[in-house]
Design a protein that fits this description.
By secondary structure, the chain is α+β, with helices and mostly antiparallel strands. It has eight helices and eleven strands. It folds into two domains: about 140 residues, Jelly Rolls; about 80 residues, Winged helix-like DNA-binding domain superfamily/Winged helix DNA-binding domain (Arc Repressor Mutant, subunit A, Orthogonal Bundle), CATH 1.10.10.10. The strands form three sheets. It has a four-stranded antiparallel β-sheet with strand order 1-8-3-6. A four-stranded antiparallel β-sheet has the order 2-7-4-5. Helix 3 packs across helix 4, helix 5 crosses helix 8 and helix 6 packs across helix 7. The relative contact order is 0.13.
């Protein structure tokens, strides 16, 4: 498998680029590996690369003055980090850490900017990706003020079930990443999931598979 196949071509915003453009992007990439727990980029670092996860998992972590860590984002294969720096110079707010043995492709900011000039449609796709993340952030802010963890979890599970048009749902992300998106910890999420299962509201079938067994109760819990 080539670097392009494992990195750029796996990213939705780059996937439809002409082969020649993918090749040029490939030429600018640096392929790196980090072991679990290693810091890929440290807090305060000027972001000068688009970081694409080829395999493994990265997490963006912020640490409080008291030493408490909060996971802000979790990135899996095909996902990328540093897109904001493509449009303006910014420093990393937190530490980007390998959550598992991870391989990434690092694309220089200037290389991606040249690509954007040649292919405006990629700029539009990046803006759409940024808009989606902004929407999700605004949605989370609203839910943090209006719903507790259990209600936020119930609402999220309902959204996944509606998107799948089925009561049997395979999560597209890990439970740990869902915890991040809901503004809670994996431990708290696990307790809430266990409580829902004990009440017969959902049934976990696998690592990322669940079944909504009582949709009405789930809707009541979400307070929709």
């Amino acid at each position: 498998m080539t670097m392009v196949e494992s990195c750029a071509a796996a990213v939705p915003v780059f996937r439809d680029l002409p082969p020649e453009s993918l090749r040029r992007l490939d030429e600018t990439m640096q392929r790196r590996r980090w072991s679990r727990g290693e810091t890929v980029m440290a807090h305060g670092t000027l972001i000068e690369h688009l970081v694409i996860v080829a395999e493994g998992e990265l997490k963006l972590v912020r640490t409080t003055t008291s030493g408490r860590e909060q996971v802000i984002r979790v990135l899996g294969p095909g996902e990328f980090f540093g897109e904001m720096a493509l449009f303006t110079q910014i420093e990393l707010e937190g530490d980007l850490i390998a959550a598992a043995d991870t391989e990434v492709c690092m694309v220089p900011r200037t290389g991606v900017q040249k690509l954007l000039c040649l292919h405006p449609e990629v700029s539009l796709a990046l803006v759409e990706a940024l808009a989606q993340r902004l929407y999700e952030a605004e949605q989370l802010i609203a839910e943090l003020g209006l719903r507790d963890v259990g209600q936020r979890l119930a609402a999220a599970l309902l959204r996944y079930a509606e998107a799948a048009e089925s009561d049997t749902v395979s999560l597209p992300i890990s439970w740990a990443e869902l915890a991040v998106r809901l503004g809670t910890t994996p431990e708290t999420l696990s307790r809430r999931l266990r409580s829902m299962a004990e009440k017969g509201i959902i049934e976990q079938k696998g690592q990322r598979l669940f079944v909504v067994t009582d949709r009405e109760a789930l809707e009541d819990l979400a307070q929709i």
